[in-house]
């Protein structure tokens, strides 16, 4: 029904200005992604005011492309330009959010998602018209980007913040237990745990051939022998999961984009020992759109959901829950899977996720 409302000229002008700002910032996301991938931010962090030629030579890149990239960085307010000397400078305050040295605060890692999502735009448009989904294999560089993202949000705080969420977990891992990671991706988390706790045994499962290939390559690179990875569809995990086999099961941002998430959670319940612990990381939405407006990166998460998380589930003829299924629905699914004891935690450095510590 059309709302009969008087046209507000000032509101329209403000919205038009906001759209111009969106246009500029969406373009900058691509340039920031490129700057991260080719190491320009890391190079400039080590330099004072320098010419485009000096920067290009230091980064071993083509000067003409670097100069045009610098134009976007200067007009976007990221890099300072001195016209009298034709030199450029990356302020340390900006470098603190754009370089690999920044660790978990490096926003340039997340800005790679824009280019990644752009690769599937035509296919998503087709899904809008005809339904269906875009499978994992169509998402160019997904596992590379998600692995780097995970390195910042999970690996960087694995020992300091995440393991302490589960009482006595470090001590148990040191003595030797069995752990399963569901939706393990490229396996970087399990490989780190396997190297830290050689007496424990680790298994990772994922339905992506590319992910498992990357994981197996990682075990060879790091020389760990107490971890192995399996290619496995999880849609029927509620039936084919082993019974009470694992002391710990983890799922790092992996449940909501499954074809049949409830079946996966039921399988985890089945595979977990009676005194075991399920550690789950997932997006911290609220399950209510009107409340998600307050989430600091809600537009990004809904976009990523539409163009990746939801569509890869639908490509499996699945539910298409999406990344923003939210805490309320998450708790409902966990209870439907059989879990009764659920603790929800938030980590100070992680505005994107909830961390659930779950027992039978």
UniProtKB/TrEMBL annotation:
Residues 26-100 form the S-adenosylmethionine-dependent methyltransferase Rv2258c-like winged HTH domain. Residues 174-290 form the Methyltransferase domain. Pfam families: Methyltransf_31, WHD_Rv2258c. CDD domains: AdoMet_MTases (cd02440). This is Transcriptional regulator.
């Amino acid at each position: 029904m059309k709302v009969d409302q008087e046209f507000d000229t000032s509101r329209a002008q403000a919205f038009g200005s906001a759209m111009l700002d969106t246009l500029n910032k969406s373009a900058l996301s691509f340039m920031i992604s490129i700057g991260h991938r080719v190491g320009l931010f890391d190079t400039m962090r080590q330099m004072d005011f320098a010419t485009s030629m000096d920067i290009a030579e230091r980064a071993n890149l083509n000067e003409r492309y670097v100069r045009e990239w610098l134009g976007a960085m200067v007009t976007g307010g990221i890099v300072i330009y001195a016209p009298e000397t034709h030199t450029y400078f990356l302020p340390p305050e900006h470098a603190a959010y754009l370089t690999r040295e920044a660790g978990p605060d490096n926003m340039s890692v997340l800005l790679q998602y824009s280019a990644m999502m752009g690769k599937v735009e035509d296919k998503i448009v087709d899904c809008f018209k005809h339904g269906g989904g875009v499978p994992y294999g169509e998402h160019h560089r997904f596992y590379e980007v998600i692995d780097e993202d995970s390195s910042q949000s999970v690996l960087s705080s694995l020992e300091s913040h995440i393991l302490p969420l589960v009482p006595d977990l470090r001590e148990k891992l040191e003595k030797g237990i069995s752990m399963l990671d569901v939706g393990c991706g490229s396996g970087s988390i399990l490989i780190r745990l396997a190297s830290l706790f050689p007496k424990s045994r680790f298994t990772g499962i994922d339905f992506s051939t590319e992910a498992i290939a990357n994981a197996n390559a990682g075990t060879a690179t790091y020389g760990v022998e107490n971890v192995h990875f399996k290619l496995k569809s999880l849609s029927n995990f509620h039936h084919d999961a082993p019974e009470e086999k694992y002391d710990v099961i983890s799922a790092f941002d992996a449940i909501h984009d499954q074809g049949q998430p409830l079946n996966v959670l039921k399988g985890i319940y089945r595979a977990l020992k009676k005194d075991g612990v399920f550690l789950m990381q997932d997006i911290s939405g609220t399950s209510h759109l009107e409340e998600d407006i307050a989430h600091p990166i809600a537009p990004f998460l809904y976009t990523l959901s539409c163009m990746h998380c939801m569509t890869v589930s639908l490509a499996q003829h699945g539910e298409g829950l999406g990344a923003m299924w939210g805490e309320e629905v998450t708790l409902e699914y966990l209870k439907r899977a059989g879990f009764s004891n659920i603790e929800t935690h938030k980590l100070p450095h992680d505005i994107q996720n909830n961390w659930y510590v779950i027992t039978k």
